[in-house]
Amino acid sequence: MMKTRTFLSLSLITAALGLSACGSMMASNTTALRAKLSGANEVPANASAGSGALEASLDKQSNMLTWTVSYSGTTGPVKAGHFHGPAAAGANAGVALGFTGSVESPIKGSATLSAAQVADVLAGKWYVNLHTAANPGGELRGQVMPAQ
């Protein structure tokens, strides 16, 4: 009887540890992403005193990208904001995904990406670009990279 209880207790502990490991593996399906936005990152660079940051997460199972872009110090109101890509730092690309709704700081949103878009984001080939009247081509830019 005692051996059976010990066996059952050990089985329950083993099962609980196994479930914990599964939960840890599922958490690895999410990648944190970041970008530092500045005028110096624009192509060509500008002298904006503004700055900003992207904090985002990408669920690699559902392809859901969720983001918050915060910024301050721009030459005027931000008129539009987008993710651009695919392009490496120092190169320009078209709009890959626009921000919908208000572009006042902080800009929050989410979207489901295609498999190709996920690959580009994870490879660091997307950037955030914020546009103002004084800098219609982009005032603040930051390359989206997996957080370290």
Task: Walk me through the structure.
Residues 29-148 form the CHRD domain. This is CHRD domain-containing protein. Keywords: Signal. With 148 residues, this protein is α+β, with helices and mostly antiparallel strands. It has one domain. 23% of the residues lie in helices and 38% in strands. It is built from two helices and nine strands. The termini are far apart. The model is unreliable at 6-26 (pLDDT under 50).
Helix content: 10-25%
Biggest β-sheet strands, sense, barrel: 5 strands, antiparallel
- How far the N terminus sits from the C terminus, by CA atoms, comes to 52 Å
Q: How do the SSEs run, as a string of H and E?
A: HEEEEEEHEEE
Oligomer: single chain
Structural class: alpha+beta
Give the total of domains: 1
Indicate the low-confidence ranges by residue numbers: 6-26
Task: Indicate the mean pLDDT.
Answer: 88
Strand order of the largest sheet: 6-3-2-1-9
Computed CA radius of gyration, to the nearest angstrom: 21 Å
Q: Number of helical runs?
A: 2
Number of separate strands: 9
Strand content: 35-45%
**Outline, from the CA principal axes?**
globular
Signal peptide: 1-27
Domain CHRD: 29-148
Keywords: Signal
Pfam families: CHRD (PF07452)
